[in-house]
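Q: Entry one of two.
A:
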Amino acid sequence: MAEFKEAPAGATVVEKTTVWFENRFPTAFAEYKKHLSEYYAPKNFNTWYFFGSLALLVLVIQIVTGIFLVMHYKPDANLAFASVEYIMRDVPWGWLVRYMHSTGASAFFVVVYLHMYRGLIYGSYRKPRELVWIFGCAIFLCLMAEAFFGYLLPWGQMSYWGAQVIVNLFAAVPFVGEDLALLIRGDYVVSDATLNRFFSFHVIAIPLVLLGLVVAHLLALHDVGSNNPDGVEIKARKDPKTGIPLDGIPFHPYYTVHDIMGVSVFLMIFTAIIFFAPELGGYFLEYNNFIPADPLKTPAHIAPVWYFTPYYSMLRATTDPMVNVFVAIAALGTVGALLKGGFSGKAKVGIVIAGLVVIALLKVFDAKFWGVVVMGGAVIILFFLPWLDRSPVKSIRYRPHWHKWLYGVFVVFFFVLGYLGIQPPSDIGTLIAQVGTIFYFGFFVLMPVWSQIGEFKAVPDRVTFQPH
């Protein structure tokens, strides 16, 4: 047994209490030092680095408000909608808890999208942080599943019909689709069985996985260290006496205070939306969802919540003509690989066979199936980003100027796809969505090529920082 520390003479009550706990729970204090007071982060973090801590804050808000909602919610097809109305009208402060949860869902995706974009522009997915990025992408997938399962629970018109449309997409999977859709629904239509399944996943299964991934994400980050706007590894230059990075500062108290400012601004915006525009014009809460679910009355236009619409837009854009475009791209890619040269005879045969197989698969399965593949692939491709980016530098600061324009066009197309996913289908909208879909995948698939092109700036040996 380790020797107990003694509080110094004249110590305050707080100091004595701290020593008492440290003697009996040294592991907690060791972890506090490892992950806060003795975790050295780069000293040049900017406002883009608020969003990691904000994501953790919103996760806590969602868990706490979710617990209070579950106290009054009834996962029953005959009672679910009425129980939500009961929470809104009769439970003391129930309306506030419900709006905090519904607004929190959208806030979560706003924060996570910005957090991921920061990682994209500063190369936070590059070596040695590949696993940090993969855990982050897995968290994003879990969030999408959590939001999808939770969306059905109010049992409103858009909840019911949105779930009906999304679950039916799984029926497009060849051979096992119908059985898969039946397994997810628990019935031949969205019903009470579906509601209970979604409730159990939303309240228990997905949150447990999500919490595990968040812990893994943070542990992996603190093992390899945080990236910074310069993309410079601060662990490469340490004080020879102390072993502390020369460009590092303790996360606590410097960045805990830094993040308090971000949290304060975020909470002002968050509460303003809750109190003055919780539906945000129908984007955060659709008006149709204030109508009880009616299996006999289909809404004129069914669309998912805004954070799913870019991918839903890609799904709708995948029509038969779009599949023919994919066939042409596969054929041109095969011919281009052959003309490039440098391949042996066996390799050329392999390229031709692979190209023919891809073309055959594109023509055998219908456009609905490939729409599901495109929608899923738009998220899955993010997992491979660490190996797609071949740029000699990490940060956008030291890349060619036209790279910034390329990232800008990518963001614009993502917003356009999101907007089109909310709107009813139209010929011109479908065409724009098809162009956006091709650009989205082209951005990532061609990244090994374009990320190496251009004149790159010299990366400094140490981080650039101007105190203020």
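Q: Entry two of two.
A:
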Amino acid sequence: MGVCIVDDSVISRDVVKMAMGMAGLEISIEAEDGVDALEKIKSSKGKSELYILDINMPRMDGLTLLKELRKLDAEAPVIMLTTETDKSKMAQAKTDGATGWVVKPFDTEKLLKIVNMVLKR
């Protein structure tokens, strides 16, 4: 198990990886967009314990990926990490199974607090 990070920004992925390392969590999957992530998730041998998804990405956005992910894993927490502050997108993400929402740019401590909360640690 581990954390699946999906973001088209290499810098954002690196910051999230650093934060997950601080929390003692390993990265199981790293992907640059929803299509890449879905392929890697389907071919992986196990489920991730946490998914962190950007919303605005090319090829497949995070909201679409969230819907597809929930067909494969209905239980694992999903944190949406995005520049979006649109309340309707937040509501849609929650309806589709998102567990948390973090707005970029984010404070590492805030992200870790939310990660610990959704993982119940």
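A: Comment on entry two: The CA atoms of residues 6 and 31 lie 5 Å apart. The beta strands are 3-6, 27-31, 50-54, 78-82, 100-103.
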